[in-house]
Structure formats: structure tokens, C-alpha cells
Write a sequence for this structure.
């Protein structure tokens, strides 16, 4: 396998918006090249996490090596490197792009270009990738390839004269795509003679072999039994395995510049072999690592508490295990008088948070209370020090702080122009600062805003989707911190402060948020045998209050001979349901209530 | 779900001893069953709130001309005849369904069968559920002549539009007429006691409307009243209406107001609120139903009926075919053969039923009998602290009871806590009483 000359290797990825058919096309390429026999084809081969398959999105990327005999009669090696399709994972996207020389830009022939696609295309252009436009779903009645081509030309400035019409579903256009990859994607640079530098673009944890690292060799070569050095993490390992993904892992003796493969070296955690790190030989190291390494920084934080305090050790163990395969997940113990023991966790974004929460519940069978997401604030103290606060409940008292700064993002929304008005209204409500609006076609625009990240992580995406019937898409990136008039809004349930419901809000919005929050909590917390006051306060000042009236009737009217067993079962079942709520003082609070701040507009 | 109400279903008792204290619950006092429930599943129609094991036969059905009824009665007789023996019965309850669809001769034959098999104790309470419009004065006299001495009349409402929306066949005039016959028979000493059932918390019900209903009920001077809060049971017409938003039930506050009002109004009128849904003038508590709430055993006969003669509940199948088959198998195996001593129900069930009663339970004795030590009982007390503080649960010496009406109206909240405490104990099977209970998954009608 490694006898393939560099000139006959092509490394490429697929850039596509969710639902535009990336996974289906990838499957089709594997099939067409005979890499996977049709009968072994599991729909959407590359997305092999259960969650990914359910949501139809790619979270962790994968790669596959295909052999293809081109029109010139030569045998080529085509490495397809999959990319995650969500904004939370844009760093990983950038690394996988760096491992390629070309990209297929897959656009739905009826829907056109979306914001996420656009962001990734620009990344690909920055990395000087050759881009081959592909119009997918050409077989559907709504397909309008000419209009979409125009759109691609006017928005991205790509020449679409050689765009390929395709239907990943029927296989139409697939051979043309493979030939185009050979013809148009440049071969990797032949740097076999230089010292080894290989770029890690993905890794996952395998319970038996340790971390499996996916890499692209940029220069030199790597062989089994080599002793390697990871230049950023400064750790070294002897390789147990080197191989290729065809698409199942197959061991080879060595891989050289231009090739894509995997290695196993009994590495204990993915944090030791991070995406973006450079692999070199311990004995003959490269002078410089490859550019662009960055450690994933969590942007969104929340508290995770077991519903049942006895599950705390299980939660810790589950997080420990998850972190082995998820280097971006950060957590530290958090104790709250209201909630008991739990963890403060950091995530790349909301989707990442949801995925982790779901995996904890599904794979580790935990019942969790998740608090509303928060961002990380920079607090400038009166004494001149600064403090980073990722938990609103720990924001210092006003008399100790000089100012608070919050993270801002550059936000780009891509939408049919009929939704301009409603989206601008939404952005304004969310404290967005309008930068500009560009018409990319006669009826589609990009809106460009700068906005506090805190406003984005509180259900902005859902709001945007619902206001535009799902037509708008968005992209954001962090641009720094800005000072704002922020205050801490506390919630008191039955006169006791409920830490997990504390939020940091802009002073101008505090009253409305407080009012909305107590109203929402009144709706979400079931009535109990006593009256429960619910209040929102800033410092000691109550700014909103509601109360949940006591429940007065809960009774089984009839209970004679045959009813007894049934009534008992019913009551036992209800008692169990109650256990899934978190007892805060004397009040049982359901999970939804902790997310109340996200539901103020519903 | 509908409520719990059954078409006629209650019974007071009379017994002349007006002030006999009710016995406290306690398993050691369990003795052989002296009560029997007979289930007559036939109705003319199924009411819209009803999920009982019933067989609707149509509006012209009556026991004299129905092959279905004849066939079923054969099975019922066979079950009685095949039952293990026991001491003479002091209460018999014929429930349904609409037992008054049977002819007096058919009911008499069933009572005679029980008499032959077990014997009927002198002064036994013989209750029959009857629906308005299913009998006349003549038929009532015949029923009294064969030994029925207590009648539970399924009135449900005094309003024709309401009765129609409940799917009832009778109308206000039928109810008033039937009640007049019963009242007359009672005054003349031919009937020892009678009861009227009403449903409260019906769609769109207001406090004023309900006050009017109760006023009319009191005017009839029934010595026993069963007031059932509507429960919408799955699979009923009401459940279907509710799903479609067509069942405008009173809001929870109003529901609670109705319950409070009922308790105060009826107690003010001289009725004792002796169980969550039951009120009786002195001496008219239903002896039969008290059996269920005291932990004592009873015989049960008929499809869907539950029996618990020896402490373990056994529900019969809820369809006629399955019941017939069950009876066949049982005839060969005699599974209800007594295996040993009569056992009491477990602790949690004794509380579940015992706390429904005005007098509650004698906790010290109950705990001692179930091996629950003072420390553990202290833990339970602490757990129930909020209910004690709120005045819902009252501990008076060794007696634990729910307050009236607040505690009774919230009894589920207290019971959930109790059950959860009991299930969470290190050794939940600590009941000293014998065999493991088993639930067969069938539900049975009450008796």
C-alpha cells in the first residue's frame, strides 16, 4: 500500500450543509470504488456514532481510503476525510481541511448555499484547497441547478462551469466526481525525504488499544515500532500499529508523505493526542511543528448534578471516561447548597453540551439535572485583580467588582430576505450590534452582527429557526470581551436561594427576565402541599415575584376490594416520578425548571 | 377515568347498635372471611365514565329473558359451590354492573346458594346495587322478601342534561321515584338501610350547582351517602372527550372547594364522614365495605371480582370467556385451598386502606405486629413532618389519621410518601405475615 507514489494520492473532504447529502454521497463513493461492498453497506457508513446517526449530523470526523482506477488506467489512492458539520466543532473542521488538497462542495440543488457551508468554504479557500462544486439531489422535482450555480458564483466567486450534477441517492454523477477528484485535486507535495511531520486531525478512545489517532503525513514517513514524539503535548510513544482505513482499519508497515492513516500506541487519553498536534520521530524530530495548533477552549458552561445524590461517584466516573474520548470536555467539582454535589462542565457549544448530557444519560444510565448554559465572564475587581467566572452563582458582590466583561461573537446569519425584519428584531432583542447586511442574490442576504455570546447560547438558534421556518442558517466566531452593565439575577424558591437558577443579565433586561423567569417557574414547578413563593432578586432587592398555590386535592375517590392493588401500584409509580425531581429545600423541582431561562419566550 | 363511582354502590348498614366503636386494624385479629362479594356484570349500557368489568346488553335487557345472564349465573353458582367452606357470612354485597337487571328469583337463588354453602349469620347485611329505572315498587318488595335488606341506589345526579352527558339511562324523575320507594320501605321497617351515590366534580360543575345537588340528596333523607369525585379512567368515553379538550372539568381549586363543601355540609346535616367518599348517619355505616378498609378477608365471586379470603388477593378474569375457563381450571386444582393460617395484608396496604377511614389506624399496634421498631417509626414520622406541620396528618396517641377534609383530600400525597418509605426499607418484605402476595394483573371491580 505504501508503494503508491505521491503523485497518485488525492486527499479530499466534503463540505456540505446538514441534510444536503454529504453522508449519502460518501457512502456512494465507497461503494463505487468497491471499498465497501453493497451488501456491507450500512446506511451512512461514516457516521458511526449512534447519536450522529439519529440526528443525521456528523460530530466526529472519520476517514476512508479508496482505490480507484482512473481514465488514464492508473490506480489512484483517494483519501476521503470527513468533516463535522456543526459550528461547535469548527476547529476540528479547520484541521481536517489542512489535511486535504481538495474539497467537494456539495450543495442541495434546490436549497442553495447555507451559512455553515459558506464558513467552511472560506476556510477551505484559506487553506488553498481545490474546490469542486457538486449539485446534489438533482433528481428531485424542485432542483434548479442553474439558479444554484449562479448563487455559488455570486456568493463564493467559484467558477461553476465544471460543476457536477449528481444524485447521491441514485448514484448519478458519482463516477464523474471520482474522475474529477483525480483530475482536479492536486497531488500532495512530495516531501518524503524530509523529517516526519504528521498532522493529527481526529482521534478516539478504544478501550483495548488506547487512543486511535487519525493523521495525515505531511512530510517524511512513519512505520510500525517507530518511537514518535507529539510536539505539542510533548509526550512520546512507541507505535503498536500503523494502518489505513479501508474503511475498516488495516495495518500496514509504513506510511509516507501524502498518505492518510491511523496509529495506536497505548495512549491513555485523547487529551494526550489532541487534534492539531504534530507527530514527529523521537530520534529525528522536525525543527518546527505544523502551524495552527490550538487547544479547544470551552465556551459554554453548565452545572451537572445527579438527581439522586448517591449517583455522584457514578457521574464522576462517567465524566472521567467520557473525557478519555473527548478532549474538549472540561469539568470540575461544584457544590451547591441547593443542589448538593455535582460538576461544573465546559463545552465547545450547545450541541456539544447536549451530546455529552445525552451520552451520560444514555450510555451511563444517569439521571441528571442540567442547569442553564452560561458563558465565561471576566470580572475586573476593585482591588485590580481579574477573575474568570463561569458560574453565575459565584459572581462576586457588586461592591467588590469594578466591571464585568463578557465574550462577544461575530454572528453571520444567512437568510431569505423576507425574514430580515424578524431576524433583525431578534438580534436587537439579544443585544446585537448591527454591522451590515449584504444581498448575495436578489432574494437572499447575510446579516452581520456582533453580539454577546451569552445571548447566542440561550436558545438563539431555535428562535432563529422558528422565526424563519428553518430557512435561515448561522455561523459565529469569538471576537473578544466587552464591558457591559451586567447584574446577577438570583431566584428564590420558598425563600431559599436557588443557585442553579442564578443568571447574569444586562441591567436593562433584568426586570423582564426576572418577571419571565418567575412566571415560567410557576408554570414548571408542580404544586405542592404548601404555598411556594418564587422571587427574582438583584442583590437584596426583589424585582419580581409569583407564588404557586398549594395543592389541596389529590385523592383516590374509590378504593374497594379489587381497587387496592391497582391504586397501590399507581401511587408507587407516582412516587417514583417524584424522585426524578430535585428536592430543593422542601420543594421538588423538575429538570425543565432549571432550563426555564431558555424558555422565556415560549 | 372515571370516577369512581359505580352505579349504585353503597351501603350503609344498620345494625341497631348505634355507637359501637369501629375496630382498629390489626393483622392478629384476622379471622376467617365472613363477607362475600358477588359480581353481576350486566348493564343495559356502559356509562361514559365507567371502566368496570361490565357486559352491556341493550336497553331492553332483563334477567328473565337473557341467555347471557342465564349462562353467567350458571358459572357463578358453580364457583360458589366449588369454593372452600367457611363460617356463616355476616355481609353479602351484590354489585355490578346493574344487579337489579336480575329477577328477584335469580338473586334469591344466589343468596340461597351462599346460604347453603356458608350459611348466613343472623342479622347479616345483604346489600344490592340498584339503578333507578331498573325496578319498580313491586320488584323492590320481592327483593326485600328474599332477604335483601340494604340497597345502594346509583343516582349520580339530579339533572337530566347531566345524566345524559354521563351516558346514564335513567332520568331525574326515575331517581326521585326510586328514592321515594326506598325511603318508604325504610320508614316502614322493610329495609334496614339505603344509600345514594352521587358524582361530584363533573364537567362545568360550580359550587352553587353542587350545593343544589347535595340539598336535593339531603331532602331524600337517605341514611347513607357515597359521594365520589369523578376520576377519568383510561379507555372511557370521558377519557376520549378529555383528550379532545371536550371535558371541561372544574379546575383543581374548585375541585378542592367541592370536596371541602361536601364534607362540611354533610357533617353539618348529621352524617359521619367515615371514609373518604362515604357518609352515614349513626348506625348506617356499610359493614361490608368496612371489611375492605380493615384488612380483613372476604370471598369474591364472579368475573372481574377480587377475592381475598386468606389475606392474598386474587382477581378473576375480566371477560366471561376467560372467567369460564379460569373456573374450569380451578375446579381441577382448587388453588384457593387454604394453605395455612389466614394472613394479614402487608403494612403498607393496611395503611393505604386504613387511612381512608375517619378513625385512621392504630400505629403502635400495627408497627409492632410488622416488626417495625420505635426508631424506624420515628424515621417515618420525621419523613412525614411536612404533613404533620401542615395539619394534614394527625397523630393522637397511638392513632394516626388524616384530618377532615384537608388531609383526606390530599391523602395521595401522604400515601406516596408512606409507600416510598416502605419500599425503600432495607428489608421490605419484613411483614411477618405469610405468603408473598401476587397480583394477577387483572383488576377487579370493587365490591
Amino acid at each position: 500500500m505504501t508503494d503508491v507514489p505521491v503523485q497518485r494520492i488525492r486527499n479530499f473532504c466534503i463540505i456540505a450543509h446538514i441534510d444536503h447529502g454529504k453522508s449519502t454521497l460518501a457512502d456512494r463513493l465507497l461503494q463505487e470504488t468497491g471499498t465497501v461492498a453493497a451488501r456491507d453497506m450500512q446506511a451512512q457508513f461514516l457516521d458511526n456514532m449512534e447519536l450522529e446517526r439519529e440526528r443525521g449530523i456528523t460530530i466526529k470526523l472519520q476517514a476512508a481510503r479508496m482505490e480507484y482506477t482512473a481514465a488514464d488506467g492508473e490506480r489512484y489512492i483517494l483519501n476521503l476525510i470527513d468533516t463535522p458539520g456543526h459550528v461547535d466543532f469548527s476547529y476540528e473542521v479547520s484541521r481536517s481541511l489542512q489535511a486535504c488538497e481538495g474539497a467537494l462542495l456539495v450543495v442541495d440543488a434546490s436549497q442553495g448555499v447555507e451559512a455553515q457551508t459558506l464558513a467552511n468554504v472560506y476556510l477551505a479557500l484559506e487553506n488553498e484547497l481545490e474546490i469542486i462544486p457538486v449539485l446534489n439531489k438533482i433528481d428531485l422535482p424542485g432542483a434548479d441547478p442553474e439558479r444554484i450555480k449562479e448563487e455559488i458564483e455570486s456568493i463564493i466567486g467559484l467558477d461553476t462551469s465544471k460543476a457536477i450534477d449528481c444524485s447521491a441517492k441514485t448514484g448519478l454523477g458519482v463516477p464523474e466526481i471520482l474522475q474529477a477528484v483525480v483530475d482536479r485535486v492536486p497531488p500532495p507535495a512530495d516531501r518524503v525525504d524530509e523529517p516526519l511531520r504528521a498532522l493529527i486531525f481526529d482521534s478516539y478512545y478504544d478501550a483495548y488499544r488506547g487512543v486511535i489517532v487519525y493523521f495525515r503525513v505531511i512530510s517524511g514517513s512513519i512505520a510500525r515500532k517507530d518511537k514518535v514524539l507529539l510536539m505539542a503535548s510533548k509526550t512520546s510513544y512507541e507505535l503498536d500499529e500503523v494502518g489505513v482505513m479501508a474503511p475498516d482499519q488495516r495495518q500496514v508497515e509504513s506510511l509516507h508523505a501524502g498518505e492518510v492513516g491511523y496509529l495506536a500506541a497505548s495512549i491513555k487519553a485523547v487529551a494526550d493526542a489532541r487534534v492539531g498536534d504534530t507527530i514527529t520521530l523521537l530520534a529525528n524530530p522536525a525543527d518546527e511543528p505544523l502551524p495552527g495548533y490550538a487547544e479547544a477552549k470551552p465556551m459554554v458552561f453548565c452545572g451537572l448534578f445527579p438527581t439522586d445524590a448517591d449517583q455522584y461517584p457514578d457521574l464522576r466516573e462517567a465524566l472521567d471516561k467520557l473525557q478519555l474520548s473527548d478532549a474538549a470536555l472540561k469539568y470540575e467539582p461544584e457544590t451547591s447548597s441547593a443542589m448538593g454535589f455535582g460538576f461544573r462542565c465546559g463545552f465547545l457549544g450547545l450541541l456539544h453540551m447536549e451530546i455529552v448530557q445525552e451520552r451520560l444519560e444514555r450510555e451511563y444510565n444517569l439521571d441528571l439535572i442540567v442547569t442553564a448554559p452560561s458563558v465565561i465572564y471576566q470580572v475586573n475587581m476593585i482591588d485590580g485583580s481579574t477573575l474568570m467566572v463561569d458560574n453565575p452563582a459565584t459572581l462576586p458582590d457588586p461592591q467588590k467588582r469594578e466591571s464585568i466583561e463578557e465574550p462577544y461573537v461575530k454572528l453571520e446569519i444567512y437568510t431569505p430576505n423576507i425574514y430580515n425584519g424578524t431576524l433583525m428584531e431578534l438580534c436587537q432583542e439579544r443585544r446585537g450590534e448591527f454591522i451590515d447586511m449584504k444581498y448575495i442574490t436578489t432574494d437572499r442576504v447575510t446579516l452581520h452582527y456582533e453580539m454577546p455570546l451569552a445571548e447566542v447560547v440561550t436558545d438563539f438558534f431555535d428562535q432563529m429557526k422558528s422565526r424563519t421556518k428553518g430557512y435561515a442558517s448561522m455561523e459565529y466566531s469569538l471576537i473578544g470581551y466587552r464591558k457591559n452593565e451586567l447584574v446577577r439575577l438570583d431566584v428564590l424558591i420558598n425563600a431559599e436561594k436557588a443557585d442553579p437558577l442564578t443568571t447574569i443579565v444586562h441591567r436593562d433586561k433584568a426586570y423582564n427576565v426576572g418577571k419571565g423567569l418567575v412566571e415560567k417557574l410557576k408554570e414548571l414547578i408542580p404544586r405542592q402541599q404548601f404555598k411556594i413563593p418564587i422571587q427574582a432578586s438583584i442583590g437584596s432587592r426583589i424585582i419580581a415575584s409569583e407564588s404557586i398555590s398549594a395543592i389541596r386535592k389529590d385523592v383516590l375517590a374509590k378504593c374497594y376490594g379489587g381497587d387496592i392493588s391497582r391504586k397501590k401500584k399507581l401511587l408507587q409509580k407516582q412516587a417514583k416520578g417524584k424522585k426524578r425531581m430535585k428536592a430543593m429545600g422542601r420543594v421538588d423541582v423538575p429538570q425543565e425548571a432549571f432550563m426555564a431561562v431558555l424558555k422565556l419566550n415560549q | 377515568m372515571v370516577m369512581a363511582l359505580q352505579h349504585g354502590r353503597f351501603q350503609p348498614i344498620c345494625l341497631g347498635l348505634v355507637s359501637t366503636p369501629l375496630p382498629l386494624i390489626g393483622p392478629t385479629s384476622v379471622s376467617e372471611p365472613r363477607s362475600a362479594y358477588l359480581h353481576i356484570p350486566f348493564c343495559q349500557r356502559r356509562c361514559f365514565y365507567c371502566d368496570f368489568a361490565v357486559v352491556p346488553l341493550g336497553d331492553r335487557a332483563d334477567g328473565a329473558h337473557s341467555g347471557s345472564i342465564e349462562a353467567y349465573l350458571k358459572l357463578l353458582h358453580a364457583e360458589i359451590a366449588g369454593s372452600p367452606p367457611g363460617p356463616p357470612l355476616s355481609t353479602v354485597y351484590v354489585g355490578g354492573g346493574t344487579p337489579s337487571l336480575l329477577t328477584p328469583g335469580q338473586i334469591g337463588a344466589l343468596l340461597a346458594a351462599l346460604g347453603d354453602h356458608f350459611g348466613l349469620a343472623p342479622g347479616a347485611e345483604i346489600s344490592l346495587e340498584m339503578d333507578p329505572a331498573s325496578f319498580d315498587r313491586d320488584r323492590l318488595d320481592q327483593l326485600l322478601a328474599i332477604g335483601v335488606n340494604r340497597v345502594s341506589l346509583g343516582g349520580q345526579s339530579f339533572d337530566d342534561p347531566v345524566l345524559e352527558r354521563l351516558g346514564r339511562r335513567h332520568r331525574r324523575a326515575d331517581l326521585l321515584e326510586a328514592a321515594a320507594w326506598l325511603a318508604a320501605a325504610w320508614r316502614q321497617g322493610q329495609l334496614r338501610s339505603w344509600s345514594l351515590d352521587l358524582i361530584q366534580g363533573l364537567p362545568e360543575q360550580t359550587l352553587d350547582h353542587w350545593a343544589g345537588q347535595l340539598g336535593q340528596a339531603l331532602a331524600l333523607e337517605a341514611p347513607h351517602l357515597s359521594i365520589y369525585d369523578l376520576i377519568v379512567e383510561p379507555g372511557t368515553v370521558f377519557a376520549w372527550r378529555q383528550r379532545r379538550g371536550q371535558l371541561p372539568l372544574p379546575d383543581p381549586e374548585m375541585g378542592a372547594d367541592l370536596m371541602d363543601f361536601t364534607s362540611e355540609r354533610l357533617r353539618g346535616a348529621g352524617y359521619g364522614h367515615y371514609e373518604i367518599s362515604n357518609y352515614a348517619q349513626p348506625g348506617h355505616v356499610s359493614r361490608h365495605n368496612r371489611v375492605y378498609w380493615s384488612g380483613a378477608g372476604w370471598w369474591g365471586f364472579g368475573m372481574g371480582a377480587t377475592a381475598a379470603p386468606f389475606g392474598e388477593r386474587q382477581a378473576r378474569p375480566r371477560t366471561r370467556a376467560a372467567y369460564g375457563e379460569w373456573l374450569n381450571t380451578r375446579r381441577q386444582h382448587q388453588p384457593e385451598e387454604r394453605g395455612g393460617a389466614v394472613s394479614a395484608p402487608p403494612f403498607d396496604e393496611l395503611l393505604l386502606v386504613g387511612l381512608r377511614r375517619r378513625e385512621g389506624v392504630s400505629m403502635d399496634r400495627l408497627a409492632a405486629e410488622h416488626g417495625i421498631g420505635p426508631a424506624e417509626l420515628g424515621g417515618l414520622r420525621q419523613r412525614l413532618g411536612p404533613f404533620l406541620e401542615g395539619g394534614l396528618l394527625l397523630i393522637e396517641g397511638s392513632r394516626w389519621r388524616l384530618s377532615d377534609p384537608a388531609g383526606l383530600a390530599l391523602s395521595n400525597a401522604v400515601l406516596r410518601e408512606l409507600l416510598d418509605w416502605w419500599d425503600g426499607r432495607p428489608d421490605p418484605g419484613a411483614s411477618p405475615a405469610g405468603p408473598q402476595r401476587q397480583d394477577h394483573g387483572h383488576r377487579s371491580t370493587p365490591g
In short: The interface with chain B takes residues 527, 529-530, 549, 551-569, 571-572, 574-575, 578-579, 586 of chain A (CB under 8 Å). Confidence is low (pLDDT under 50) at residues 44-48, 52-61 of chain A.
